Structures are given as C-alpha cells and as structure tokens.
Amino acid sequence: MRRPGRKLAPLALGCVLLASCGDDGPAFGAPRGATAQGRDIFRLWQGSMWAAMVVGAFVWGLIAYCVIRFRRRGDVLPKQTHANVPLEIAYTVTPLLIVAVLFAVNLRTLDRVEHLSADPAITVEVTGFQWQWRFRYKEARIEVVGTDDTDPVMMLPAGETVRLVLTSNDVQHSFFVPAFLFKRDTVPGVTNEVDLKVEKEGRYDGRCAEFCGLLHDRMGFVVEAVSRAEFDHWVTEQRTLAATERTAGVSP
C-alpha cells in the first residue's frame, strides 16, 4: 500500500507546479505583474521560491540520509566524534552567503522599481481623501473624482512610463493595485512619487489598502490602460466636457 503513495507524490508535486506555469515558469501563487516594475517584483519572488525549494530539498535530503544511514542497529553505538571544524564552518558560512546573495538581489530589484524616469510620458497627481480618490492630469489639466456611487477611472497609455504623485488631504490612505504588485501609502503632508509602465492594455481594479474610516470600503478605483490614440481621444473628450461645464456655469 505504501509503494503507490511514493510514486504518486512526485506526480502530484509536478501537477501543482505545471498548473501555475506560464511562459516564464511557475508563478507560485503570485500575480505575474502587469507593469514593468511588477514584473521585476514577480521575478524576485519567483527566484526566491526556487532558492527556497533548492535549500529545502537539500536539507530534507540530509535528514533522510541521516535517518537511513545512521539508524540504530541493535545496541551498538556508532562512532562518536567530538567536533568537525570544517563542517561547522561550512554550515555557518553557507547560510550567511545565501542571505547576502538574497539581500543583493533584493536591493537591485528595489533600485529598478524605485527608479524615476527623467522624462515620464504623463504625470498624474493622486489624492486620497475620505472616502474617495482624485486623479489630476497635470499636463492636460484634467481632473477625475470618484463619488459615492461611481469609482473613478484612471486612464493611462499602455507601454509608456507614467509618473504618479501621491498624497492625502486628511488621513493616511493606501493606493493598491493587486495586478501591478504595487501598493504605496498616501500620507498627509508627504508626497510620494513613483513611476509605472503598464505593459498590456486592460482594466485593473484598485482599492485603498489602509483602513481610513467608516466608509473605507467605498474607496475603490479602476486603472484602464489603453493605446496612445485612445488616450489622446479621451483627453480631448474630457477637455471638451470641462469647457462645456464651465460655459454652462457648472463647476468642473
């Protein structure tokens, strides 16, 4: 009864890994990142998981070897060794090297994710307030504000670097887009600047990830990445709408 179980275990593990595989390997349960920065974070996660699996397999292999090789046979004690200095140095230095490598890789990824372009395509000022979001397009002089009934939509050109300038009017909020593997707090009196480059067109749900009051659950929003032509068309429509409202005496 034990032999089928031993044969099925590797097969089950293989099925789990294959189920999460994509063009760039298994995802290990994480989104692959819809932005260039998110892809860097995903590759860091993926590499860390592979490293953990290798270390885990090595450790479990050593445990299995010791259990089988040095299992008790009768009452005879195995050879007793007081110390093994080279081995002790090896199992002390090896974890330190692993941690150092992981630290260096994390630092390199952080530098790439936090890098600010000298010439972003557009700049969007993101303001969190109780209990909604305001998106102001600096160059186009367009403002999108959410309401109690409607989540605001942030339109972005896909494939281009976008600068987000985040702040808050009242309490601390958190701008979170799960598909981007991106979350950044908006803090009163503090301005955070980040660059994002959405690689594919589509709609991506976002939300506030910091409890900010009784109506915190209403702070949803949508990021819609479109082609440059569609984005320019949207900008023209929004400008026309704003001009019509000003002419009619309606506040934008």
- The number of E-state strands comes to 12
Radius of gyration: 27 Å
Which parts are unreliable, with pLDDT below 50 for 5 consecutive residues or more?
Answer: 1-5, 15-20
**Approximate strand percentage:** 25-35%
Q: What overall form do the CA principal axes indicate? A: elongated
Polypeptide structure, described:
With 252 residues, this protein is α+β, with helices and mostly antiparallel strands. It folds into two domains: 31-114, Helix Hairpins; 122-247, Sandwich (Immunoglobulin-like), CATH 2.60.40.420. It has four helices and twelve strands. It has helices at residues 2-19, 36-69, 85-114, 228-247; strands spanning 21-22, 25-26, 122-129, 132-137, 142-145, 153-157, 161-168, 173-177, 182-186, 192-197, 202-208, 220-226. Strands 5-4-3-7-10 form a five-stranded mixed β-sheet. Strands 6-12-11-8-9 form a five-stranded mixed β-sheet. A two-stranded antiparallel ribbon has the order 1-2. Strand 1 (21-22) and strand 2 form a beta hairpin. Helix 2 runs antiparallel to helix 3 (85-114). The longest helix is centred in the first third of the chain and has 34 residues, at 36-69. The radius of gyration is 27 Å and the shape is elongated. It starts with a helix and ends in a 5-residue tail after the last helix.
